[in-house]
Input
Amino acid sequence: MIPFIIGAFCAAAFFLLGAMLYDSNRFVTVEYRVRCRNLKRKYRFVMLSDLHNKRYGKHNERLLAAIDAQKPESILIAGDMLTSETPGRFEPALETTEALAEKYPVYYANGNHEYRMKTEAEHYGSGYRRYHESLVKKGVVFLENDSLLLPETGIRLYGAEIGKEYYQKLKRGKMTVSYLNGLLGKPSEGEYHILIAHNPDYFPAYAQWGADLVLSGHVHGGIMRLPFLGGVLSPALRLFPKYDGGLFCEGDSVMILGRGLGSHTIPIRIFNPGELIVVSLEPE
Output
């Protein structure tokens, strides 16, 4: 009996190791179609999040080719393209975003890693400033608690950069509509509001604020995914988080939560490949 148990344990360990190696080095393309109020015409974009300096090919050519194949009108980035633990080594994030900016309009909202590098320069040095300046020179538009109207579509893009108190481990801060109003202002009537907000935990507040569509990342799909249970662990160290990946609804608001393309700290993905998100918006 003991040899059987040992054999079964070893077989399971090898299986999980194989799954980890396989899923940690691939991505899948996932497409969502959303019917929208106040949208003037169809609009198709690619959403990226949580690359964390991952490379799919020497210069991310596999990822870039997959994006080109989707023929998007723009690229929306939901944060954490780089990793704050390696602030001086952001070449994969930089070269990938620069390559995209040569072909498409790129709209970029920071995640907690960019925010940390930006606000704690005494610890991280000038990494964020150099990264930001390089991308702005290439035409990347950063939405740092700011908005931008795309008049031909009726879409207003917002980028929320929330404070570090909303990224604490083991606890969830309380977010109010007044807090979001202070960051972003109140949504304008007659427009379709896309809010790029890295942390999905606050989707109910984003919906109450007035977001029609929320684009988020941060959770990495829960690191490992299990049948019927979904993602196992969130960055806040909560087991089986409610928002782990996919499409969620809150009243009239929709959130698309990408499972990200890379990883950090716990650098594994099991039954949880990276995701390239493609969104097609269609008028009601």
Observations:
- The radius of gyration is 19 Å.
- Residues 19 and 128 are 34 Å apart (CA to CA).
- The first strand starts at residue 27 and ends at 36.
- The chain has a mean pLDDT of 92.
